Amino acid sequence: MSQPHPLTATAGRSKGQVADLHFMDARSKLLDLAAFLDRLERATGPEDHRVRGLRAALPLLLAAGDDRVAKILHLWSDPSSAPIEKADTKSASGVWPGIQ
Amino acid sequence: MRYIEPHGHMVSRTTDDYQAMAMAGCAAICEPAFWAGFDRKSADGFYDYFCQLTQHEPKRAAKFGLPHYCWLCINPKESEDMALAQDVLSLIPQFINSPTVLGIGEIGLNKNTRNEMKVLEQHIELAVKYDQLILVHTPHLEDKRKGTRLIMQVLKSHAKVRPERVIIDHVEEHTIAEVLDAGFWAGITLYPESKATPTRAVDMLENYAAQRVWLNSACDWGVSDPVAVPKAVVEMRRRGHTAKAIDSLVYGNPVRFLSQSPNFKDPQALLS
């Protein structure tokens, strides 16, 4: 396995220092996410797989560990392993369409 | 500050972008062949594109004091058309000896189809035959993990591919460890919406600041930022990383990988 190689500055960083650097940015993004969910609430029609994926990821934010980003990206990934016969689009949506 | 932009699609950018990059400390730019945002209809379009990459764009970059290098291929987004792909692959050898060509790239997968896999294998054969470096594009979003694994299977199954001469680009938190563990170089792409932000990139660097990682903007015709790498440098400074560590990442690492091509010249050496 790849061994982490923390850069020198990482070792002595306190939670307070991290909050000083990044709290306002995280606060802003959390409020944007809340506003997005409110906007969806006011919209009509069924929810699509992208929003299902987003909702499925929310509990991971409160789980323990320091690998939340990786866990969310794994959750949204196509779980299959074989090449597909042919693509019907060039683009990706952000969440595997089969997600429950 | 000095840095290398190892992945920028400058044919899609303005001279203002060249100016901004030069002012931010960019010392050289490397441009992989890319999808134009629409499907080209014939190999003639690629012939012109390869001329643009090897002849015209280096002159445009030189006006800003920037050495310009390129990579050649048909992008996986256009690999579904096997006939077109064969025609384009047959064009590449006549450009491969151009003095600014670094290798074959950005090859890889887009939607992880069988045809994309076949064209990927043919590109790898071409790189091996002409002893070229390889730059790999990994798929977007939900297709990335599967595509990265398929690409690595193909690369690892070829006896003549040396992982240290391959960079697998656009890694994220769920793919970086597998790429590094397999011995390849890893590229982290800084995008405003997809791929990685500067803050996430620096998190990854702090966790996997291995000797085989580079940062790039992959700026192109879409939502992207040609000075994303300097913004990641600012983030590293904010966190207290030393000038030496930063220089090693954004200048030293690209130079170490790219210098495996005889065509790449360390920009610092060119100045002295």
State the main characteristics.
heterodimer; A: 100 residues; mainly alpha; B: 272 residues; alpha/beta; TIM Barrel
Overview of the structural elements:
The complex is a heterodimer of chains A (100) and B (272). Chain A is mainly α. Chain A folds into 2 domains: 14-45; 47-80 and 94-100, no CATH class. In chain A, 54% of the residues lie in helices and 0% in strands. Chain A is extended, with a radius of gyration of 18 Å. Chain B is an alpha/beta fold and 272 residues long. Chain B has a single domain (3-267), classed as Alpha-Beta Barrel (TIM Barrel). Chain B contains 10 helices and 8 strands. Chain B has an 8-stranded parallel β-sheet. In chain B, helix 4 (114-129) links the parallel strand 4 (101-108) and strand 5 (133-137). The longest helix of chain B has 20 residues, at 43-62. Chain B starts with a strand and ends with a helix. Classes of the chains: A mainly alpha (100), B alpha/beta (272). The A-B interface holds A 1-2, 4-10, 13, 21-22, 25, 67, 69-70, 73-74, 76-81, 83-87, 89-97 and B 77, 80, 110-117, 139-146, 149-150, 172-174, 176-177, 180-181, 194, 199-200, 203, 205-210, 238-242, 245.
